[in-house]
Design brief:
- With about 725 residues, this protein is of the alpha/beta class.
- The chain contains 21 helices and 32 strands.
- Strands 19-20-18-21-22-23-24-25-26 form a nine-stranded mixed sheet, with helices on both faces. It has a six-stranded antiparallel sheet with strand order 7-12-8-9-10-11, with helices on one face. A six-stranded mixed sheet has the order 27-28-32-29-30-31, with helices on both faces.
Length: about 725
Amino acid sequence: MTIIGMLHHRKDPETVIKAYAFAAVAEAEGANFFYFSPGEVNLVNRTIRGQVYEKGKWQTKIMPYPNVIYNAGSPEKLSKSKEIINQLRKDIPFTTYSIGNKWSVNRRLKEAKDFASYLIPTEVVKNSDHFMTFIAAFEKVVFKPIDGRKGKGIFFIIQEGNRFTVRGDGTYKSYTVAQLNAFIKQKLSQGTFIIQPYIQSVTKSGQVFDFRLHVQKNGKGEWVITTIYPRVAPKGSIIANINSGGYTNYLEPFLEQEFKDDAFNIKKKLEYFSLSLAKHLDELQMEKYGEVIDEIGIDIGMDQDQKLWIYEVNWRPGCPPAFYLELDVVKNTIQYAMYIANNQQAIKQKIREAKRRGAKKEQTTPIIAITGSAGKTTTKAFLSSILSKKWNVFESKDYWNTTEHTKQHAAEINSSHQAVVLEYGMAYPGVITEHCQIIQPNMSIVTNVGLAHVGNFNGDPRGVAKAKSELIHGMDQSGVLCLNRDNDNSRFLETENFKGKTITIGIKRHANYRAYDVKYTDQGMTFKMKLQNEEIELFIPIFGEHHVYNALSAIAIADHLGFSPMEIKTGLLFKKPPRRLTIYNCKDNITMIDDTVHSHPEGVRAALDVLKNLAKHRTIAIIGQMRELGDIREREYRKLGDYIEQQGIDILITYGFRTEEIGDQAERQGMPARNIYHFTDREKLHDLLSKLIKKDDTILIKGASKTNMFETVKFIDKKYS
């Protein structure tokens, strides 16, 4: 006869309601059953002082080690007796093992990929700025404790213009930006919170609902559905959890009422999904830890397109209170415990097979190299941010793009990295070839071919294109190449003999990944595109249409690698590279735009576009010297003068060798001479700014690192902070 021991952190079975049900069902199934806590185990004698239910009450008896242990207590509380439990595990099979908290389950599913597309993008909130960036992208979000239970502490927050509605946990208020910031900071001071886009399932009457899928293993060791039922929130509430006032319903009548002709198909979809996910999680537990699980509760939502979304996966879910299924749950558990006790060899063989399958999963690590005259660092940051939503990513540092840096990266990349994202810079022919000899990419992005370093190629962009083409020749020839269709000079790239897959991005021309409805917002850019046959609106927390191109390149590669639209949308909320159109809000409503890393004609025009789009009053452009333009310098400076006058910039200040040519041309085109200044002395420039800058001005500082234009940023920030 099988002996089942029920392990719980509480000593008294009278305080554990389900203990009696387990004792009764075990007797009916022909098993001996006793209840115990870790403190009652005698490791020396291999006996346990247990509680046996006899003659209507719990009796204390010295019991031999059981054939199987049903571990029913809290993992956190049982962890205090870790040594005893570990010793028991060596000698006795357990029915199940913890799959971790909701956050770790989320991570596990992401890494395994099979069910990643059903996960709602979830991030641990680092600070209030992180929160504000996230809500700018999604507008409706859920903000909740990382280890919350029973629907407590959950907030639903909607952005409506410059105000935010906060609902949940007894709160229903409208907040300003400052008030919401204070609210988020106060919550973060109390613990760790996560944020998600709000995926809403709503009945015809406007009530929020979700589905609970309760699955278990039976007496044959097979996964079965215990029950599937909807949980409906009270009117006006966003929480369908029963402990928060929600109520349950029977599945089939609910589906018939809400979905009519689709009811049967949705029921089948829910059944298939519940069993598939349970088997998948069990496989992962065996593969990673050599353990099995026996029961999970899955909370899912369904959007207006009937797509399923995983809200949470719960280990040891509670029984549905309205359906009298407690005995069904207990019966499955007892029968499975008996199966575990009598089929250890078969279970161990299953675990060995799962581990073998896991070891065979071979995937070529994506090694992605990015080059181009502009946008390399931002594209790299976008792509790394997206990929890191599921993978451990090696990303080269902000501006580390020389061949010496690539040699360092080669020494640092290891088997733990699931993707590698690198920036390959060059100023002369042969440099990118050397990059590829050190680390050969299997995926490549050429952001554009422009005028950066064109002076080193006799002023001919075709020479720049030839040097950039070294990436195409040096990469894996069966790999993936991403090109910019809107960039005219990219037509000079040498793609004729490339045998891999080429994907294109664009805004103005037809491309595989094309953005449209590109707009400025208060915190960045929004745009729309078709992704996986659906229109999606995306947000990037950086200004400028040129950065939409950078985002598109990252989106194209991520989509090719199987990332879902929601993962991509979340990943675009990246950590912006420093000094790339960084906005400083100074006193007297003065706005400063810092773009002081690189400078070339295309980049200056892009920065001027941002200045013009952000400014509500007077615009001041401070433009530094552009190096390595060679013989085309004068021509390109004149073009910039034309563009500055066309854009209606109010004040132009140039700094550095021969940059007065920009101002001279702007004046020839009609810009008033009194609004044009030129300096080669930084102190004199700063003296002018002290007198010139007024309330409500928007100021652009654009220049390369070598011209030290960041000194002017620091000067303005100090004077007007």
